[in-house]
Specification:
By secondary structure, the protein is of the alpha/beta class. The chain contains 31 helices and 26 strands. About 40% of the residues lie in helices and about 20% in strands.
């Protein structure tokens, strides 16, 4: 359907405040631009986002001229919405939160209803979405289907409508209300009650037309927000309004009861994790007493007021009991000794077997390290997976060794790199780690003991160390730990909240682009943590798209699923289907194109998977040698593996094939990475969802001799701080850090 808009007076102005919602924004915007009612105006207020939200808005605005972007500094959602209200020209107004989405008929059904009933406000039902579950809000059961009435005629039921401003359509000529920009909590509730106290004519639609995403990271779940007193500031502001003071006592107590719901929620959140502040305790007391001025018949049956009083009273009682009983106790369990003093518990763990040996080496190093000068660098790549290719820290080690630094490199004895070093007898400054640190966490401490006592800086490309080694590193304040990564986290943010990456773990972390920087900042990383450079291995890559042979490299990233699930996964089935596709194999055979396929090292380690490919033009390669094929291949096919950046660095085409996006067995981390890819696809190109799409793109690049389009090259270039002398720049930064420690 053609998207039309009456530029002077669209039917609906949709106002969307946007702040750091890059992973949800595309779904929201797609639901708005694809509304069945097309005569709409879409006003997006970017409230100083520090992630990729603005880039996503700009990409959508290029596609749809109905989108207006207001870009401003971060001043809060109230001011952002007021910007939208002042800019709106539509006959009606609708608010949409940028992490939610509309049903595609929402605008049309709400518009038809408000026009038919000549009402001032349409309130429509909604779905609550949490994880993989979705349910319909039950408020509309209080009405017999779709109804129309004035506010004062249906107070009993209308009080239980959601106090958020989404899920509503408002006549703009009736709405002369602006948000109070001084309120930081319950500003939506204040706005709604100001509107309802004008006694609008209201239409109710029982059909759910809005999807409200309930996510734990949103502001309403933030303990810091719960601890402040902003809710009482909003309550006091509403109490001061003449429209509230002139309303009936019945109306007043029901509005206050809805605020009691918010106060009780805040109280429950706080008491789960901490204590009440004196100020917050006092404000609750005043709020509860405020109800006492009303007739008991008005307040006795108020639902949330009663619940608030109960929670408040019960918590005071239980705190006294706890304090009187918890004086001193010692409890021995199978694994721990627990000492309790005045309610504070101290847990001591019994060490056995390898844990005890591990602690022995930690104590030994800590005890003797003061005797030695700190003049050594220690580097290593992966020490827990023999199938991983060791190249980043190793290539930096070679550069630093040749530059005269006192430096050592630790290598796992089972790895392919060790085998190559053994063939050449190239063990100068090489430390051999006998066992995987995954199986024997203390092994690194044991094998590197003589070096660790002299080490001033540890540099690693794989950060999966055992927790006790991190504890050891933290206690050695002089020793710096630099994480140079093995692959950018741009496509796989799940590592940020799975415990793999957290800023307390490292003194410095290497990042390669401003895009990556924005992701780290989204998770509140400090600027002082970053080394802005590039991966050491990129120095070994060619800097242009010279086609030495016509060849395509295929590698998909890891999936965290069980072996049984893997055998039935779309991931496995569709890789096999692709590599046995007759059309593709015939085409590459005719055009003398080679296919190289590598399975991710974690799949080899965990599952020992074997893909049976019976075609001489498809070569299965060892993960330990992928760098060779990255350099000579003309093009890459992947999903969201970080190997994409190796090809982008060389200005070679990358085809992103999300082959198992719809697989129901994906775990939540893989699924979330897939969802995040949905907004990141606007920052890259060549994203395919079907095998036919992919094969068509392959043919396009084969016929163009794998030449990269200028606009795609420009996007690729945005990912790199530098493409020249990376190891030299990185070494200078490492030396500066180690010298100043």
């Amino acid at each position: 359907m053609e998207k039309v808009i009456n530029s002077s007076n669209p039917k609906i102005s949709i106002i969307i405040p946007v702040y750091n919602v890059e992973e949800y924004l595309p779904k929201c915007l797609n639901s708005v631009i694809n509304q069945t009612l097309t005569d709409i105006e879409i006003i997006c207020i970017n409230d100083g986002s520090t992630d990729n939200s603005l880039e996503i808005l700009n990409e959508f605005a290029k596609q749809d001229r109905r989108i207006t972007i207001i870009n401003k500094e971060n001043e809060g959602v109230s001011k952002a919405r007021n910007f939208g209200l002042k800019r709106a020209t539509g006959k009606y107004l609708m608010f949409v939160d940028s992490d939610d989405w509309l049903e595609l008929t929402a605008c049309e059904e709400a518009y038809q209803t408000i026009e038919k009933d000549n009402s001032d406000l349409v309130i429509f039902n909604y779905y609550t979405v949490k994880g993989n579950t979705k349910w319909k809000y039950s408020w509309c059961k209080k009405f017999d289907g779709n109804e129309c009435f004035y506010f004062n005629e249906a107070i009993d039921n209308i009080f239980y409508v959601t106090t958020s401003m989404w899920g509503k359509l408002i006549r703009r000529s009736f709405n002369n209300v602006l948000y109070n920009e001084n309120l930081q909590m319950a500003e939506d509730a204040v706005y709604l009650w100001k509107l309802l106290l004008k006694n609008p004519k209201i239409s109710v639609l029982a059909t759910p037309l809005y999807n409200y995403l309930q996510r734990s990271s949103s502001a309403m779940y933030n303990i810091k927000i719960a601890q402040n007193n902003e809710i009482f500031k909003s309550i006091n502001y509403l109490l001061s309004l003449s429209s509230f003071q002139n309303s009936s006592p019945y109306t007043q107590v029901h509005i206050l009861d809805r605020f009691a719901q918010s106060v009780e929620w805040k109280l429950s959140v706080i008491l789960k994790d901490t204590k009440l502040t004196k100020e917050f305790y006092s404000e609750i007391e005043k709020f509860i007493k405020y109800f006492e001025q009303y007739e008991s018949s008005l307040v006795d049956n108020l639902r949330y007021y009663k619940k608030l009083k109960k929670t408040f009273k019960h918590k005071k009682y239980t705190k006294l009991i706890k304090i009187s009983n918890a004086v001193f106790s010692v409890c021995n369990t199978e694994k721990h000794k627990v000492l309790t003093i005045l309610g504070v518990k101290f847990k001591f763990k019994y060490l056995k077997g390898s844990k005890k040996l591990e602690q022995y080496y930690i104590n030994k190093i800590k005890k003797t390290q003061k005797k030695y000068p700190k003049d050594t660098y220690l580097l290593f790549d992966c020490l827990f997976d023999s199938n991983a290719e060791n190249i980043d820290a190793y290539s930096l080690f070679i550069y630093m060794k040749n530059s005269g630094y006192n430096i050592f490199y630790a290598v796992l004895k089972d790895s392919q790199l060790y085998m190559r070093l053994k063939e050449k007898n190239a063990f100068e400054r090489i430390i051999i780690v006998e066992k995987s640190t995954k199986d024997s966490p203390y092994q690194l401490l044991k094998d590197c003991y003589n070096i660790l006592v002299r080490t001033k800086c540890i540099i690693s490309s794989f950060g999966e160390w055992h927790y006790s080694i991190n504890k050891f590193l933290k206690k050695l304040s002089y020793l710096k730990y630099i994480f140079i990564q093995h692959g950018q986290i741009f496509f796989k943010e799940s590592v940020m909240y799975k415990g793999y990456l957290f800023q307390e773990k490292f003194d410095k972390i290497l990042i390669s682009s401003e895009m990556e920087y924005k992701i780290f900042k989204k998770y509140n990383w400090d600027d002082e943590k970053f080394i802005k450079c590039g991966l050491p291995r990129w120095d070994l890559l060619q800097k242009n798209n010279t086609v030495e042979e016509k060849s395509i490299f295929i590698m998909f990233t890891f999936r965290e699923i069980s072996l049984l699930q893997f055998q039935e996964s779309y991931y496995k089935k569709r890789i096999l289907t692709l590599l046995n596709n007759k059309d593709l194999l015939d085409y590459i055979n005719i055009n003398h194109v080679k296919l190289y396929f590598a399975l991710h090292h974690s799949l080899l380690t965990n599952y020992g998977i074997d893909f049976k490919i019976n075609n001489e033009n498809v070569k299965i390669i060892d993960m330990n040698n992928i760098s060779e094929y990255i350099k000579k291949s003309s093009c890459l096919i992947t999903d969201f593996s970080s190997v994409a950046f190796d090809f982008m660095f060389q200005d070679k085409p990358v085809l992103f094939y999300l082959l198992d996006k719809d697989d129901p067995i994906l775990n939540k981390f893989d699924r979330e990475d897939m969802k995040r890819f949905e907004y990141k696809k606007y920052l890259i190109s060549n994203v395919c969802y079907t095998e036919n799409e992919l094969i068509n793109r392959i043919k396009h690049y084969v016929e163009s001799n794998f030449e990269l389009e200028p606009d795609i090259k420009e996007k690729y270039d945005r990912f790199f701080y530098t493409k020249e002398n990376i190891r030299e720049k990185l070494t200078k930064e490492i030396e500066r850090l180690a010298t100043n420690s």
